[in-house]
Specification:
403 residues; mainly alpha; two-stranded antiparallel sheet; 20 helices; 1% strand; globular
Length: 403
């Protein structure tokens, strides 16, 4: 068991290393150009506090709270001498600090193997490597750090304060992006269903949620009042889009959208994705079968996928793969839930463990290939992710030429 934990910790560190090694690898396109333009504007701390979402953004996608946070960070630390590379260094320190802060709790937890497997699969996934290159707060380390907090508090609650903070963070994080509201609703319902027998935990989670909603009320109001018109040019990809993207993400294929079809068609990449897809299918079947036969209550952990999918369909929000990735902790729960201690005496659990290790290895291989491609041939990237800032962003006036 200790060896497995060491291997999983090594995989997590490897995924972080790949994501952070070259700060110049941050992408540059429309969103990043808006960041460079608007985060350099505040002339006083008051201006930084009142900095608003750029009008050039699509509808309500860019939240006011993260924009103000970044504006204050830029003003206080950089004195408006804005540097995307410097800002990214600060961003990446956040998830590392959170992992370090929670590390004693993880290492002493009965759920350690479950948590480490889920984190390792999420952090080493090649799409996580791509999304962390985003400069905006909703597309990078801050998003991952926020959901990491929620994920750890969900399964490692020790005190009333933990339950309060869980509810608070679930609803403060709605400010990261329009679609985060759907995730907050799903996670809240999961908590109420999974812990409904413990009224004390539910009570403090509810109090925390009210606090988070109060903090985020301006953003929630803006989303609700503009939701119908925020995507007039961008409609939903259809009823099946959410479920298709979930499966594509888990089998490593979303990168086709962001890295470029020609690069993805490399035989090794395609073969890895096909193999990973088969593994994911087998893991889902085995986990569901084990849950239904042994611990039926854990089937509730699947509820966020169903609820979020329904909410996406109802809201008609445009569904990029990265909106799915921002939900990565709960995406992996159906694959890893049988690593909880209550399943440790089940023989089939060892088969699931072996398949998870193989899926993790495929993650690391494909992430390494992408990492090498981005850093060896950044000018050849032809997909949605955009050219790297070092190559294109600091040399152009219009970010469209960097795509």
């Amino acid at each position: 068991m200790k060896k497995i934990n060491i291997y999983l910790l090594a995989a997590i560190l490897y995924g972080i290393f790949l994501s952070l090694y070259f700060p110049e690898s941050i992408e540059f396109k429309n969103d990043e150009q808006l960041a460079v333009k608007y985060l350099s504007e505040p002339e006083s701390f008051k201006d930084a506090l009142t900095l608003k979402t750029p009008n050039e953004g699509r509808g309500v996608n860019h939240s006011m709270l993260p924009t103000r946070f970044v504006g204050m960070l830029t003003y206080l630390l950089f004195d408006n001498d804005f540097s995307p590379v410097s800002l990214r260094f600060l961003y990446t320190a956040i998830p590392i600090s959170i992992i370090f802060l929670f590390s004693p709790r993880i290492l002493n937890s009965k759920n350690k193997l479950f948590i480490l497997f889920t984190l390792a699969l999420g952090i080493t996934n090649p799409y996580s490597l791509l999304i962390i290159r985003k400069l905006w707060t909703h597309g990078g380390p801050i998003t991952m750090a926020g959901y990491l907090i929620i994920f750890l508090l969900l399964f490692e609650r020790k005190t009333k304060t933990d339950n309060f903070l869980l509810g608070c963070f679930v609803w403060i994080l709605v400010t990261l992006h329009t679609t985060a509201i759907l995730y907050s609703l799903s996670i809240s319902l999961l908590v109420f269903l999974y812990f409904k027998k413990n009224k004390g935990e539910i009570k403090y989670f509810f109090y925390g949620s009210l606090t988070g909603i109060a903090v985020s009320s301006q953003w929630i109001y803006k989303v609700i009042t503009q939701l119908g018109q925020s995507n007039n040019l961008l409609s939903s990809q259809g009823e099946s889009a959410y479920w298709v993207l979930i499966f594509q993400y888990l089998k490593l294929e979303n990168i086709k959208f962001d890295i470029g079809v020609e690069f993805f068609s490399n035989s090794l990449m395609s073969n890895i994705s096909l193999t990973a897809g088969l593994l994911v299918g087998a893991l889902v079947v085995l986990n569901v079968a084990l849950i239904l036969s042994y611990q039926f209550r854990d089937i509730i952990l699947f509820s966020p996928f169903i609820i979020t999918g329904i909410l996406f369909i109802i809201s008609d929000l445009y569904l990029y793969p990265r909106y799915v990735v921002s939900f990565w902790p709960l995406i992996y729960i159906p694959l890893t839930v049988t690593m909880l201690p209550k399943y440790q005496n089940i023989k089939i659990r060892n088969i699931i463990k072996s398949l998870l290790i193989l899926l993790l290895a495929l993650n690391m291989i494909q992430s390494s290939i992408i990492f090498n491609e981005i850093n060896s041939n950044p000018e050849n990237i032809d997909g949605n992710i955009g050219k790297v800032y070092f190559i294109c962003g600091n040399k152009v006036d219009d970010a469209k030429v960097c795509r």
